[in-house]
Write a structure and sequence with these properties.
Blueprint: E1 2-10, E2 19-24, H1 32-42, E3 46-51, E4 59-65, E5 70-71, H2 76-87, E6 97-104, E7 107-116, E8 119-130, E9 132-134, H3 140-147, E10 162-165, E11 169-174, H4 178-183, H5 188-193, E12 204-208, E13 218-223, H6 239-247, E14 255-263, E15 271-279, E16 284-291, E17 293-302, H7 305-309
Length: 311
């Protein structure tokens, strides 16, 4: 059996930027074990398998695998899948905006695909998140030590370090300048000697409200004990917590806020994530996440029938 797959660069419109996601547009009939093997073989951060049903044409089931396990939810695969299905004709994009429902293990997700001349140009999906915000944080001395920055680089005027969870906890740390985000290096020894490991968070979202790029408002980066010293991993999973963090400050006015966050730089697969959040001062936050993508590659895998069906 021949299995077609596509690889898209996500949250970017330039090749060799963003995050690479693999999509199998027609995965009907694949077993769990086969999907795990395919994801491991492609060795990308996430691989998406798309299943069709007898329901309305506006619904697709997504199964998402990292190289190690199946994921219940991920944002990058939504953008990648919408682009791939639109480009390969699985989804008809006759209208300017085409609404879809992508089912992940966490449940259905509303998706809008914007198109020009029948080709996808922008994808936005909606999430309702409930956050827990804790103002407890390590001292400035400890933060500076395990981030390998100076205490003077930490921002306490407009923002402050806080622990935020929308299902997965992050220690969110603000700094003044873009350069501080880019030059920070995680120090595991200093981390282990601080109070930080006693918190629930094992990942730090370091951000600055300044960026040299005109299309974004914040620059952010993930660091932590389980992230490689020179790695700059995708930050999409941290964006609900970041939005809730911004809403936790009194100076963030009620209403809808539109902003963009970038990860990386011109030399390290820069991503741009567009966000809209409805700040109503409630625990539940309505968040819309959007981005672009570009098709990087497509191919075919000759899959023996006994492997496809095996469990």
């Amino acid at each position: 059996m021949k299995m077609d797959y596509h690889i898209a660069d996500v949250f970017t419109k330039q090749l060799f930027n963003g995050a690479q996601i693999a999509v199998f547009p027609h995965a009907d009939g694949l077993s769990d074990s086969t999907m795990k093997l395919l994801a491991r073989e492609l060795n990308l951060s996430e691989t998406v398998f798309v299943f069709h049903s007898d329901k309305a044409d506006s619904r697709r089931k997504l199964r998402i695998f990292s190289t190690k396990k199946e994921l219940d939810f991920a944002g990058h695969p939504i953008i990648a899948t919408a682009y791939v299905l639109g480009l390969c004709g699985d989804i008809s994009l006759a209208q300017t905006i085409t609404p879809m429902i992508f089912e992940q293990n966490v449940g259905p997700i509303d998706v809008n695909i914007t198109a020009e001349n029948g080709k996808p140009t922008f994808v936005q999906f909606t999430r309702k998140v409930v956050s827990i915000v804790d103002r407890f944080a390590p001292t400035d001395e400890e933060l500076a030590s395990f981030l390998s920055i100076k205490q003077s680089e930490l921002d306490h005027k407009k923002y402050s370090p806080r622990l935020v969870s929308c299902g997965f906890p992050y220690l969110i740390v603000p700094v003044w300048n873009y350069e501080s985000v880019r030059h920070a290096k995680f120090d595991n020894a200093a981390w282990s000697q601080s109070i930080a490991p006693q918190t629930a968070a094992q990942e730090i979202l370091l951000f600055a409200p300044k960026t040299p790029f005109p299309d974004t408002d914040f620059n952010a980066r993930l660091l932590g004990p389980h992230i490689g010293l020179f790695d700059d991993p995708p930050i999409g999973s941290a964006m609900p917590a970041f939005a809730a963090y911004l809403c936790s400050f009194e100076h963030t006015q009620k209403g809808t806020h539109v902003f963009a966050v970038d990860r990386g730089d011109a030399e390290s697969r820069r991503s741009v994530i567009n966000l809209e959040m409805d700040n109503k001062g409630h625990e539940q936050l309505m968040l819309r996440v959007g981005g672009e993508a570009v098709l990087f590659a497509q191919g075919t895998i000759d899959l023996p029938d006994e492997i496809r069906k095996s469990e």
